Amino acid sequence: MLNQSLQENVFDMPPQTDIAWCPGCGNFPILRVIKGALADAGVDQRMLTLVSGIGQAGKLPQYLKCHYFNGLHGRALPVATGIKAANPHLTVVVTSGDGDVYGEGGNHLIHTIRRNPDITVLVHDNMIYGLTKGQASPTSEEGLVTPIQPRGVYVDPINPLALAISLDAPFVARTSAGEPQHMRETIAAAIAHKGFSLVDIFQPCVVFNKVNTYQWFKEHTYFLDDDYDPTDRMAAFARATEEGRYGLGIFYRTDTRAVFEDEVGVYDDDKRPLYERKPQVAAVKALLAMKR
Amino acid sequence: MTNYTKKESHDVSILLAGQAGQGIMTIEKILTRAFKEEGFSVFATREYMSRVRGGVNSTQVRIADASIAAPVERVDVFVALDGHAFERYCSRLTDKTVIIGDKHVADMCQCSAACKNIVTIPLREIASDIGRSVYANTVAAGAILALLDVPLDGARDALQTLFVSKGQDVITHNITALERGYKHGSHAVFSQNIQIDTVARTQKEDNKKHVFMAGYEAVGLGALAGGVDFCTSYPMSPSTGVLTYIAQHGKECGVVVEQATDEIGAINMSLGASYAGARPIITTSGGGFALMEEAVSLAAMTETPVTVHIAQRPGPATGLPTRTAQEDLNLVLHAGHGEFARAIFAPGTTAEAFVCTQRAVALADAYQIPTFILTDQYFMDSLALAHEDDFTFMPIKKHIVETDQGYKRYALTENGITPRGIPGYGYGFVCADSDEHDESGHITEDLDVRVQMVQKRRKRLEALAQEALMPSCSGACDGSAKKALIVWGSNRAVAQEALAHTERDDVIAVHFAQVYPLNPRVKEMLDGLEKIAVMENNVTGQFADLLERDLGIKVDTRIAKYNGAPFTVEEVINHITQL
Ligand SMILES: Cc1ncc(C[n+]2csc(CCOP(=O)(O)OP(=O)(O)O)c2C)c(N)n1
Ligand SMILES: [Mg+2]
Q1: Which residues of B touch A49 (CB under 8 A)?
Q2: In chain B, at which end, N or C, are there fewer CB atoms within 10 A of the end residue's CB?
Q3: Domains in chain A, start-ordered, CATH in brackets?
């Protein structure tokens, strides 16, 4: 145990680091737990790259001692895919918001699951746009009143788990910022799983979402049973579309899909990342000669 | 308009026209190969409609005794595979034009001036006789070669290459088709007393050292020669050829190629790869590039090298997908919010495209900026001969450093450029941030740091301008000329050929293969000229504006063409005459 917490410490930023989250924000437990989960998953700190978009959640990599690429709002997934394809030895983890991944980046989510790079995507799902001060997000529940939705949200929320399962995402799970131990285990399992892993993390936004609070999440969630079989896709789909209460756990997992970086071809006989390779000048000269 | 009549026929222009899907490209491939082996200068340019079948498409093939790489209006030989081709091209046919086609097609010729020298060849009948009507194209190619008195060796080679994957039978049948077409053609030359001027075979030996390729191949090859190892793009005419070329040869050159599901994904994937040490290129057209703009800005902010090739087509919006334009200079010049350095190339020949593409990726890497190559549909789809020696391979330098502990991705330096670390190589952490950041790459709202970072990103523009390519000059370049015709990108060859034809010694043609930043020495080069005309394929004169804005060069005349077709030699002769 002592050993483990020592390992977690390597990700700590200096104590004077200014953190832009509000007191009581659900992002704090996520930040704490990620460090432990990375340690548990045996991730080599120098080979870890975090990727995020823009939002309060997207700031997480700033508060962790690691490589990171904090890109544009909604665009974390293609960046993460590119990193993994250029250097498959890196462990690539995306941490971003519900607005970022499910809204602005929704198209990328669909096609990244299809492409299936071995990356882990952690979505801090506070059902609200935090950074921009409280507008509806794609996961906001119907009826949520915001400054822009004064009559309450009337658009149906997205169901990220059902969406991911329908696309046969290799690892689909939900956890909650209010359940640190469960969150730690789930994130560690997601990182360890080969292929695209999605973890939707219920995260209270204490300032802008007065409905989906710690208390609300506690009351509306339950842990999937021990005998729940995450390899049964139809059952997983049924569980993900359950209404009124939300399961926490690994909804679906499969080992059958090939991963993107194995499919692109250049790593078939040569495992080195692109940056270590020499350009193929002779091959190019041969191509030029073909045009004689 | 000046009538560009042939001077003892230094060149012959052949127009192949037919429906999409009728196999014009096959004839083009057979002819150009035969012409190259025969020792002509060869040029081919394709014009096509945005459809997969039907319509009227054409390819112009020119042969000459001196280097050429531009379209002409004039048509010496018109090959009609479909009767509707006449309506479309009547205005370009004269009583001297020799028309070749099946009888039922030739019967549809109702051009008032033309329809005199018709050589009917039973293309379909011969083809069916050999086995399949698809061989009709090859029959036509044989007939054309007979008319021009060109032996079949090169054509046979071309058929071997073209149909290698289809098996020996197909090759044999095609060769028979070729020979029978040739026989019919030769017979017509005698029986109908058809006269086509002969062109001197001036480069028989030299052509062996020449390569013949399309613009899209030159850009693709340049990317590979520049060490590109990552290419994600989304298909969009007229840029897709580059993506296809790189995809076809990706494996042997170690390139990760991925068809993205949209342009935003394409460039963000490339930025991720670049951040991790890859050298990416993206190929697109104006509309796709417009979608990439936010990420261009991200590349600048994170100082992540990336190169985008943009093959222009007429806009706005979907515009004319398969036609040509130079309308997106302003788009590329201003793409992305915020202020930052960039470089834009606009090659005018295949060899130049090969070199500029290498240069663009090398500069992106050296300066950690976005760089661009601007071409257009006309350039992509034109094939020209160029000496192999002009395809210079630049040494490839990777600017990646092994990081130390305490590495700062944006450490301030004299020239603004921080040695580039990547994740997984060294002992430091590589933190790239889209937000304004401090030297370590962490988000900051310290306004003094902000100013330092703006300067850091801007500084490199001066060095970029100092090493910007100088324009090339043709004509009386000894300083005696009083007037200049300035062009950029694909208009290089048309300006040169037209100028040579006018024999004007008071005019120079000046071509910019790099349009941004402009080398400050350009000002000295153009000072002292009495008249400056800028010719480009857009309505406003975007490059003329840039010359005025950045160098204070006064542009007297703006020559604009924006109907979607490239400038022809005749048109440019006319413009030069009026200078
Ligand atoms: C292209 C673009 N559009 C809009 C924004 C403004 N914006 C920043 S974050 C954000 C939404 C944040 O919501 P979420 O992703 O759920 O993150 P949270 O702050 O809730 O953690 C928006 C709309 C932006 N930065 N970029
Ligand atoms: Mg949110």
Answers
A1: 276, 423-424
A2: N
A3: 2-289 (3.40.50.970)
**Does residue B425 share a domain with residue B305?**
no
Q: In the predicted model, what is the mean pLDDT of residues A236-259?
A: 97
Same domain, B366 and B425: no
Within-domain flag for B122: yes
Q: Tell me the CA–centroid distance for residue A77 and ligand 1, in Å.
A: 15
The reply to whether B372 and B462 lie within a common domain is no
Write down which residue in B387, B417, B433 finishes a domain.
B387
Going by pLDDT thresholds of 50, 70 and 90, the confidence category of residue B533 is very high
Q: Containing domain of residue B458, as a range?
A: 400-467
Contact flag A273-B276 (C-beta cutoff 8 Å): yes
Min Cα distance A225 → chain B (Å) is: 38
Task: Assess whether B34 and B122 both reside in one domain.
Answer: yes
Span B207-222, average pLDDT: 97
Give domain status of residue B154, yes or no.
yes
On whether both B71 and B141 belong to a single domain, the answer is yes
Nearest chain B residue to A53 by CA: give it. Answer: B434
Rounded Cα distance, A37 and A40, in Å: 5
Identify the pLDDT of residue A238: 97
Q: In Å, what is the CA distance from B351 to each residue of B141, B347, B358, B513?
A: 28, 8, 11, 11
| Chain A hits for B266, Cβ within 8 Å | 78
Same domain, B284 and B229: yes
- Nearest by CB to B435, which of A70, A89, A288? A70
Question: Does A134 sit in the ligand 1 pocket, CB within 6 Å?
Answer: no
Summarize the confidence of residues A242-268 as an average pLDDT.
96
Taking the CA of A73 as reference, the closest ligand is: 1
DSSP notation for A192-242: HSSS-EEEEEE---TTT-SSS-HHHHHHHEEEPPTT--TT-HHHHHHHHT-
The predicted model scores a pTM of: 0.97
Q: Which ligand is nearest to the CA of A99?
A: 1
Radius of gyration, CA atoms only, chain A:
20
Total domains in chain B come to: 4
| Chain segment B292-324, per-residue pLDDT in tens | 999 999 999 999 999 999 999 999 999 999 999
Q: Letter for the amino acid at A54?
A: I
Q: Is the ipTM of this complex over 0.95?
A: yes
Measure the CA–CA gap between A260 and A86, rounded to whole angstroms. 11
Mean pLDDT of the residues in chain B: 95
The reply to whether B14 and B143 lie within a common domain is yes
Distance CA A57, CA A29 (A): 12
The ligand 1 atom nearest the CA atom of A124: 21
pLDDT at B9: 57
Range A195-205 average pLDDT: 98
Based on the domain organization, do B423 and B463 belong to the same domain?
Answer: yes
Contact check, Cβ <8 Å, A69/B272: yes
Q: Which residue, B12, B34, B46, is CA-closest to B138?
A: B34
Would the pLDDT of B68 be above 80?
A: yes
Is B395 inside any structural domain?
no
Q: Is A21 in the pocket of ligand 1 (CB under 6 A)?
A: no
Q: Which of A21, A129, A201 gets mutated to test ligand 1 (max ligand atoms within 8 A of its CB)?
A: A129
What does the pLDDT look like over B31-57, one tens digit per residue?
999 999 999 999 999 998 888 787 889
Instruction: Return all residues near B565 (Cβ < 8 A) that are at least 6 apart.
Output: B47, B323, B324
- Average per-residue pLDDT for chain A: 96
Q: Give the end of a domain, one of B387, B415, B447.
A: B387
- pLDDT tens digit sequence for A160-172: 999 999 999 999 9
Q: By C-alpha distance, which of B251, B366, B390, B258 is closest to B307?
A: B366
Residue numbers of A between 62 and 91 with CB closer than 8 Å to B: 62, 65-72, 75, 77-87, 89-90
Q: How far apart are CA A208 and CA B266, in angstroms?
A: 34
Is A281 close to B393, i.e. CB distance below 8 A? yes
Structure tokens, B141: 């190619």
Q: Is the peptide bond before B122 cis (omega within 30 degrees of 0)?
A: no
Residue B6 pLDDT level (bands cut at 50, 70, 90): very low
CATH code: domain of residue B484: 3.40.50.11610
Identify all chain A residues contacting B434, using CB atoms and an 8 Å cutoff: 54, 70-72
What's the gap in Å between the CA of B426 and the closest CA on chain A?
Answer: 8
Q: Output the pLDDT for position A149.
A: 96
**What pLDDT is recorded for position A5?**
62
